[in-house]
Amino acid sequence: MSGKRQERRERAAANKQEQERRERGRVWKSRALMALGALALIMLAVVAIRRPASDGGRVWSEAHGHWHDQ
Asked: Phi and psi dihedrals of 66, rounded to 5?
């Protein structure tokens, strides 16, 4: 009977290791998505800051989606 017990213990240990591996994968994906989200927010902030506050003799073209000299 001890052979069956040993097999069960080995299977349980293997299952536990597999669950831990999957959890590490989930944690890594979660952290990667958070980092990408933070990077996207930073990029949006940079774009918003670089946009000209005044027209400076320029006009916005709705058709083209950017500024033109007058």
From this structure: -155, 175
Per-residue pLDDT reduced to its tens digit, 4-38: 999 999 999 999 999 999 999 999 999 999 999 99
7, 8, 10, 13 alpha-carbon torsion, rounded to 10°: 180
Q: Are the CB atoms for 58 and 68 separated by under 8 Å?
A: yes
pTM equals 0.53
38, two tokens: 């933070």
**Is the Cβ–Cβ distance between 59 and 70 less than 8 Å?**
yes
> How far lies 62's CA from each of 31, 55, 67, 68, in Å?
38, 14, 9, 10
In this structure, how many other beta carbons lie within 10 angstroms of the beta carbon of residue 67? 14
